[in-house]
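Annotated sample (chain length 145).
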Amino acid sequence: KVAAAQAEREKAAAVQKFQEEKKTEIEEKGTAYYGEHQGITCDACATVPIFGYRYTCKSCASHDVCESCYDAWAGGTGVMPNGLAKQILSTNPADHSFRLHKDATFKSVVKSGSGPTAKSTPKLKPNDTCDCGSGKKFKKCCMNK
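Output written by the structure step:
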């Protein structure tokens, strides 16, 4: 009983560490990797297209998984199903090493910008007072300059 409880605590600690590493990786790379990966199928659950974060295995030739399957993998301590079954992949989670990935077919959902954009000054209309300080109408002063 004691050994089983200790193994369970170690597994929970490993999953917690994995979640923290995932969070820091996403914070470092930002939301540039979040979106629709057209034509890409998750090899674990067979979802097409992968929407959200896409992970590729560093050790397998063509092994892509979606974010939920990556979470189930849990850094090599969870499960790694082969739901697509189109290629021979190890179902042993320790055999894989994943990283965030995007390619040419990727369509970002989140706009990359830091905060709200500042509004530009409104465009002057011909009958507005010119902003050069002359006091004349814009059409008679600086419109044609």
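Annotation: The chain has two helices and six strands.
Annotation: The longest strand covers residues 54-57.
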